[in-house]
Specification:
Distance between the termini: 43 Å
Strand order of the largest sheet: 6-5-4-9-12-14-15
Strand content: 15-25%
Number of strands: 15
Structural class: alpha/beta
Mean pLDDT: 91
Low-confidence stretches: none
Radius of gyration: 19 Å
Length: 252
């Protein structure tokens, strides 16, 4: 099989199976695992897959910069945000992550809601300035411009000194095997720090993130209270997540 044919075959597996197992492909095509791994390296260099131990997973489309991500699945993000906003109770404390889906949550919060919002996103804080009964706490640190949030040691330390009833975090990938992932190590660490300070943590995941993976794990699936997604409940990956015990809140 020519290299171009192998490439098409691998991309087809990603699209239809949701993963590539290098040893299985090698056996199927009668080639060495080294050849498959080289092909996967080439695909990963083009941003077409996320290499993992033993093979590859579909790459998340949510790794573009903050401005570009605002145009990705805006309808799905609004649906997810509507369900997420309904989890926020009057008088409660909410830790709200940064990113475009979290920004949609900020817009979805009722104008007369009285609660405390803790965030490391200047964009989120600015959005909630016109909510007269929302008390805002902005966690500071080095600004990671890709997602317009504070990250790094100072931000993680600040997060360790707050607590909340609910944490809503965004990720770039949700996969039954890879778990919850994002594209930057410091951002992943900040999300973990935030989630650790809340009684319940729900993940915001519009449908384009389901079944995909990024390089750095945020949390294993068993560490969250639930997942909010507009993906079809009969989607194969959603069904796998449910079978693994994840509480999936539909946002259709």
């Amino acid at each position: 099989m020519l290299a171009a044919e192998r490439r098409d075959h691998l991309l087809g597996l990603l699209a239809h199976e949701g993963k590539i197992v290098a040893k299985d492909v090698a056996a199927e095509l009668g080639i060495s695992e080294d050849s498959v791994r080289r092909d996967l390296r080439d695909l990963a260099a083009e941003g077409l897959c996320q290499r993992v131990y033993g093979g590859a997973l579909p790459v998340s489309p949510a790794v573009a910069d903050y401005v570009a991500r605002q145009t990705v699945a805006p309808g799905g993000k609004r649906k997810v945000a509507s369900v997420a906003a309904g989890l926020v109770r009057p008088g409660g404390a909410l830790i709200l992550d940064g990113g475009t889906t979290a920004l949609a949550v900020a817009h979805a919060l009722p104008q007369d809601l009285a609660c405390t919002v803790i965030t490391h996103s200047p964009t989120i804080a600015a959005t909630l300035l016109d909510h007269p009964q929302v008390e805002l706490f902005l966690l500071g640190g080095r600004i990671f411009k890709h997602s317009a949030v504070a990250c790094g040691a100072a931000a993680v330390e600040a997060a360790q000194n707050v607590s909340a009833d609910l944490c809503l975090i965004g990720v770039t990938g949700v996969h039954p095997e890879a778990g919850l992932t994002t594209g930057d190590a410091e951002e992943a660490a900040m999300k973990r720090a935030l989630a650790a300070r809340a009684a319940d943590t729900y993940v915001l995941a519009s449908s384009e993130k389901i079944g995909t993976a990024s390089r750095f794990r945020v949390l294993p699936l068993e560490k969250i209270s639930g997942l909010i997604t507009d993906a079809d409940p009969h989607n194969a990956v959603v069904e796998q997540l449910t079978a693994l015990g994840v509480d999936v809140l539909p946002a259709g």
